[in-house]
């Protein structure tokens, strides 16, 4: 066939092509392209070419938010706790307090062991141990030269041990070397260190029916709660503690849903150190959980990279110092995440920054006694040091 041939039955679509029977091949090719595209909606094509990349980018940036918001569709909430009322007043006798809880008072208090895995939370540990010091028989602390994510770190407690001289006579300290396995799930290293802490507790001399506090350093039981449990008989073998949940300082009260801290009546061969739900019993209003409550911006960055949820650092700018400082003062989320809730109502209710509270009532006593040292943890003092 000749190069300029065109079926005359298609003159309604290709009329211009047929008229150019003796045109150049390049002109003919362009004409054919125009002919082919004449049947398409160019606006729809442009929307497709521009819209799809934008949609992919939005999913990349905000996909985690979408999955968290849709969480109530595919995930049911856990079984609710049985919340036990908690009675306390400094002027009420221990005999009456035990009776109010349905327990009997003991002739002598139980021994109490407070066991923690330590990373770098020196200030919070100081506040915790002073809060619990009148009631604890033995402090048990284990630290590693590795974070849960396999990052090498200093032995911060060992280097600052003299700061805790008030607890030295009741301290069982241990150090464990990290395994530094690349690409491993951080929860494997965390479990490895908790098993080691289990052994350290035994070295500390714990015996049956002693009380064992299982909680992270920043999950601080109130002193009067531990005093109640050591003086009362017939308390549950395992009791989770409901803690007021604070973020960055005691200015941002998130909720009262922190429950991982627990107290155990120790049983040889049965009690294992863990940080997950172990019973349905929850004692109301039993202390404070102050998460990411650091003095220095560098400590925020360190923890973000070091703890088991390191996958939440989706972009490098999350670790920018100026951004972190802004987030702290605003009360928003370091990882730009939606609330981890199980109903749309709860998710929507918690959207946006956490409202500030200006109450410093019923906080750890040592925090208020040392306001010059720990002012950054009190309402109205959000600025952090860079060192």
Helical/strand content category: alpha/beta
Bulk shape: globular
CATH C-level name of the largest domain: Alpha Beta
The pLDDT mean sits at 88
CATH topology of the largest domain: Spore Coat Polysaccharide Biosynthesis Protein SpsA, Chain A
CATH architectural designation of the largest domain: Alpha-Beta Complex
Describe the strand arrangement of the main beta sheet, using strand numbers: 1-13-9-12-6-3-4-5
- End-to-end Cα distance, whole Å, is 81 Å
Number of strands: 14
Overview of the structural elements:
With 387 residues, this protein is an alpha/beta fold. It folds into 2 domains: 31 residues, no CATH class; 296 residues, Spore Coat Polysaccharide Biosynthesis Protein SpsA, Chain A (Alpha-Beta Complex). The chain contains 14 helices and 14 strands. It has an 8-stranded mixed beta sheet with strand order 1-13-9-12-6-3-4-5, with helices on both faces. Strand 3, helix 6 and strand 4 form a beta-alpha-beta unit. Helix 1 runs antiparallel to helix 2. It is globular, with a radius of gyration of 31 Å. The N terminus is likely disordered.
Summary?
The protein is an alpha/beta fold and 387 residues long. It has helices at 11-19, 25-37, 42-69, 71-74, 94-100, 122-132, 156-159, 186-203, 223-231, 297-306, 321-330, 344-349, 365-369, 371-374, and strands at residues 82-84, 104-105, 112-118, 138-144, 171-176, 211-214, 219-221, 232-233, 238-241, 243-247, 253-258, 262-265, 281-283, 287-291.
């Amino acid at each position: 066939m000749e190069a300029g041939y065109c079926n005359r039955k298609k003159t309604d679509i290709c009329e211009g092509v047929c008229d150019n029977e003796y045109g150049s091949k390049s002109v003919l090719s362009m004409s054919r392209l125009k002919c082919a595209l004449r049947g398409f909606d160019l606006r729809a094509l442009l929307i497709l070419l521009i819209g799809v990349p934008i949609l992919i980018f939005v999913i990349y940036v905000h996909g985690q938010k979408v999955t968290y918001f849709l969480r109530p569709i595919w995930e049911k909430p856990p079984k609710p706790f049985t919340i036990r009322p908690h009675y306390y007043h400094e002027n009420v006798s221990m005999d009456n307090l035990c009776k109010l809880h349905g327990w009997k008072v003991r002739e002598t208090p139980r021994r109490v062991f407070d066991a923690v895995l330590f990373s770098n939370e020196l200030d919070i540990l100081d506040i915790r141990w002073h809060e619990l010091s009148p009631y604890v028989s033995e402090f048990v602390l284990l630290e590693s030269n590795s974070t849960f994510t396999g990052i090498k770190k200093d032995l911060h407690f060992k280097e600052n041990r003299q700061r805790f001289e008030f607890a030295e006579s009741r301290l069982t300290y241990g150090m464990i070397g990290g395994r530094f396995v690349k690409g491993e799930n951080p929860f494997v290293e965390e479990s490895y260190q908790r098993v080691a802490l289990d052994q350290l507790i035994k070295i500390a001399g714990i015996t049956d029916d002693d009380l064992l506090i299982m909680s992270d350093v920043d999950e601080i039981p109130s002193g009067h709660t531990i005093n109640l449990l050591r003086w009362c008989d017939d308390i549950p073998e395992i009791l989770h503690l409901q803690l007021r949940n604070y973020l960055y300082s005691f200015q941002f009260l998130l909720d009262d849903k922190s429950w991982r801290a627990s107290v155990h009546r120790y049983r040889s061969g049965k009690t294992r150190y863990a940080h997950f739900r172990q019973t349905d019993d929850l004692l109301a209003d039993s202390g404070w959980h102050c998460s990411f409550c650091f003095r220095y911006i560098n400590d925020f960055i360190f923890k973000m990279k070091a703890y088991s949820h390191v996958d939440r650092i989706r972009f490098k700018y999350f670790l920018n110092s100026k951004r972190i400082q802004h987030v702290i003062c605003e009360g928003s989320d370091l990882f730009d995440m939606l609330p981890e809730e199980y109903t749309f109502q709860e998710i929507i209710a918690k959207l946006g920054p956490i409202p500030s509270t200006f109450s410093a009532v019923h906080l750890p006593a040592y925090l208020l006694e040392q306001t010059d040292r720990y002012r950054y943890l009190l309402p109205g003092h959000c600025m952090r040091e860079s060192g």
